[in-house]
């Protein structure tokens, strides 16, 4: 564990959750706002939070929480994730939300088949041809399989795209919407120039509300439920 937010009312829809941050990501998004979580190994002198601390925290707060949000980094990179989620479910009877980039469809499928995920939030960065800007090419087929798996599952989920000026436009949003046709929920999230992996993006403005609305209307040509998170 790389960090813990003890209480959140916005990360897990309709639930009060604790938020667990995992270390390491296989993407290198220039606009990432958790850029300190990208390296798989922490810098010298820094240590991960012991799981014992987290479960001790749950003992104290169990009756005040509805669930736990697992985010990162990319949680599916954690070799012990399934055991970690099982303990949260089995020992504390809490709901679990998983944030993922969808780059490991087999791991994701195993977690879903084990009934360990109550809500999935999947980050879709770009249309498939543009993923090469921030991820190894071999991961794209994995993400496609994850999207298909999720759309055809019974798990509550959302797809979401963080839109960044200079990287996303109306044409790109339409391509993304087409590639997830049939999805239940799609969120368009505005970029925030804070703690970005690329320091140059800290000077870039977010999209205006009028442009976000154009994005939403464009995506709605192909999807039934499109919402904005500004």
DSSP strand (E) fraction?
A: 15-25%
CATH domain class: Alpha Beta
Largest sheet: 8 strands, mixed
Q: What order do the helices and strands follow?
A: EEHEHEHEHEHEHE
Could you give the distance between the termini? 28 Å
Number of strands: 8
Number of domains: 1
Structural class: alpha/beta
The rounded Rg comes to: 17 Å
CATH architecture: Alpha-Beta Barrel
* CATH T-level topology: TIM Barrel
Average predicted confidence as pLDDT: 93
Which spans have pLDDT < 50 for at least 5 consecutive residues? none
Organism: Halanaerobium saccharolyticum
Pfam families: Radical_SAM (PF04055)
InterPro entries: Aldolase_TIM, NrdG2, Organic_radical-activating, rSAM, rSAM_sf
GO molecular function, one term: 4 iron, 4 sulfur cluster binding
